[in-house]
Design a protein that fits this description.
This protein has helices at about 5-10, 15-30, 40-55. By secondary structure, the chain is mainly alpha-helical. It has one domain. It holds the Pfam family Tctex-1.
Length: about 70
């Protein structure tokens, strides 16, 4: 493994946080709180975040829990 490969496989917490924040904003930015929709929103945010993380093609497994 060369140095380039080693750096590409590092876990980038800042990137992960940014993906999470963007996904949350995408779903909730213009919404008004509605208790009946919270489970749906959480599920959608989790699914979308995991899909976006998998697009990075990093050698990690991501787990989300509601």
């Amino acid at each position: 493994m060369n140095d380039t490969d080693k750096f590409e496989d590092e876990f980038d917490i800042e990137l992960m946080e940014e993906i999470g924040k963007q996904t949350i904003s995408q779903f909730l930015e213009k919404m008004h709180y509605n208790e009946e929709k919270t489970n749906f929103w959480v599920s959608q945010i989790l699914d979308t975040t995991l899909k976006e993380l998998s697009k990075l093609n990093k050698p990690f497994k991501y787990v989300g829990k509601i």
